[in-house]
Design brief:
By secondary structure, the chain is of the alpha+beta class. It is 25% helix and 20% strand.
Length: 537
């Protein structure tokens, strides 16, 4: 059964009230990692304050356009209020990143695809530039928490026939729509091995899937209705929303206080344990802003690694036209293909149903996204003229189903997040797309399209399209303090009580959505924290 949403969570607290209470733990950020940690710690007797920049509740229908510029409207719909500045391949840009803001974070907007990484993703490997990289813990270490997260989110699907996981016991998914059933048969006949995507959508009667938007009924399981709301109802957790953390105060060995701005008032809140879960853009930014005599370059930044090793996925949409008419009534985001996850000695990734059709609106969005990453991005008139080919494509080719690739990128030191006081969001990312990523992204599309025949397919982007909703790696975990920010427990190497549980910790990006891995790791870290830091009461 879906979790019922309340428009106003009952366990909110103001910053001034929070400053006068005792807390066992402060969690900065109410997205997937922060909510999972709060849920787990609440069950283990911790008094937790979750501090969130966005709002505690949203409008019932999140119909705001992706490029709506009014910050208040965006916040009302659970979206990040301002653009993200970046420098891509040496050229400046500003983007509306697909990020959430508020209780549940980006999960209120995601499409609820909840896949595990593969065991080989955790094994030592070499990046194309010859650098050795590995995770500081194994697949076996996180596997029980993958199972726990799948159960919490009600994940259903079928096993990847090429690599079944004996530890995953997923309920049977509901029957897919006739059009997706047609594609399942066609792709299988083409030599691929499609299976049912692992999804956290409940598909209750009247379900609209709410892909990329807020789900008012809770049928789509997100971090808020699955983790944060139950934690708040436990009485152990309270939420301080619309509060921005300005910096973290610390001595040489431990963090002890957060400075927050709430309703134009600056407050100090202290606790013996601080967990950072503001996301891979903003967790490193907060650490970099938190300077003092002991940490002149920012907390945990003794080796100039905070913010570095930023990774995005390359996610390229491919339109595929069926033969004949097939109903779209029923679930539409249902298929996944991992035939080329690792192939011919290289790592690629997977293909997923996007749950979209190739109509004028999403063709235009895809064209503009590609344009924004091209050398022509400084010519706004051309961007407006993209409406013409989008209209022609939708009229001439008819309606197709959109699938999207998820191609792993590797960690490079110069791909990073830095502070930018003049930027709308206070940060800027620097990113260079390596030729090898362009080659792998193109190769995966070529391999897939060859298997799609005799169906007609068309990539909706011609260059690797970065997925700005999947940032990771900016506070990388590792065994060596010289080459990583966090240890195997996701604790800052030289700080006794500061942990990071969002996608910042990931040493590699893998070839799938990071959401389930973030949740599983946060549950793992919460258990570690509970053993190392006893609550006050």
């Amino acid at each position: 059964m879906p979790m019922t949403r309340s428009d106003t969570p009952s366990k909110k607290i103001s910053a001034s009230a929070a400053a006068n209470q005792d807390w066992d733990c402060l969690i900065i950020g109410a997205g997937m990692g922060g909510s999972a940690a709060a849920w787990s710690l609440s069950r283990q007797g911790y008094r937790v304050l979750v501090i969130e920049k966005g709002r505690s509740a949203f409008q019932a229908a999140s119909s705001v356009a992706r490029e709506m510029s009014d910050p208040a409207t965006r916040l009302e719909n659970g979206r990040w209020p301002t653009q993200i500045s970046g420098r891509l391949d040496g050229a400046d840009m500003n983007i509306w990143a697909p990020l959430g803001s508020g209780a549940g974070g980006s999960t209120t907007l995601y499409a609820a695809a909840l896949h595990r990484l593969r065991p080989e993703d955790f094994a030592p490997q070499k990046t194309p530039d010859g650098k050795e990289i590995s995770w500081p813990f194994s697949y076996e270490d996180i596997a029980p928490y993958y199972t726990q997260a799948e159960q919490l989110f009600g994940v259903h699907g079928t096993q990847d026939p090429l690599r079944p996981d004996p530890g995953a016991h997923l309920p049977e998914p509901p029957e897919m729509c006739a059009r997706d059933a047609y594609f399942l048969k066609s792709f299988t006949e083409g030599g691929l091995h499609p299976y049912r995507l692992h999804s956290g959508i409940g598909y209750e009667p009247g379900c609209k899937e709410c892909l990329g938007s807020y789900c008012p009924s809770g049928c789509k399981r997100d971090a808020r209705n699955t983790l944060l709301d139950p934690a708040l109802e436990s009485g152990q957790v309270k939420l301080c929303a619309e509060a921005e953390v300005l910096r973290i105060e610390a001595n040489a060995n431990a963090a002890h206080t957060v400075i927050i701005q709430h309703e134009e008032t600056e407050c100090q809140i202290s606790a013996p344990l601080i967990i950072l879960a503001a996301g891979a853009y903003f967790s490193p930014a907060l650490l970099l802003r938190s300077t003092n005599e002991s940490w002149p370059d920012g907390l945990a930044n003794q080796n100039d690694l905070v913010g570095r090793n930023l990774m995005f996925h390359a996610s390229d949409p491919i339109a595929v036209w069926p033969r004949g008419q097939h109903s779209k009534k029923g679930p539409t985001k249902t298929l996944s293909i991992r035939d080329f996850y690792s192939y011919d000695g290289k790592k690629y990734g997977e293909l997923q149903s996007a749950g979209q059709t190739a109509n004028f609106g999403n063709v235009l969005y895809s064209l503009r996204l590609s344009f924004d990453q091209s050398p022509l991005r400084k010519l706004p008139l051309i961007r407006q003229l993209l409406r013409i080919p989008a209209w022609l494509a939708s009229r001439v080719l008819g309606e197709a189903t959109v699938f999207t690739t998820i191609v792993e990128d590797y960690a490079y030191r110069d791909n990073r997040v830095v502070l930018d006081p003049d930027g709308a969001s206070g940060i800027r990312f620097h990113y260079t797309i390596r030729p090898e990523l362009l080659e792998r992204a193109h190769k995966l599309k070529t391999l897939l399209r060859a298997r799609f025949k005799p169906l007609y397919s068309l990539p909706l982007s011609h260059r690797a399209t970065l997925n700005y909703g999947h940032p990771c790696g900016t506070c990388k975990a590792g065994d060596d303090p010289e080459t990583s920010v966090l240890d195997a427990n996701c604790k800052a190497h030289m700080l006794d009580n500061l942990y990071v549980v969002d996608s910042s910790f990931m040493p590699t990006s893998g070839g799938t959505n990071p959401s389930l891995t973030i949740a599983a790791n946060a549950l793992r870290v919460a258990d570690i924290v509970a053993k190392a830091h006893a609550p006050k009461t």
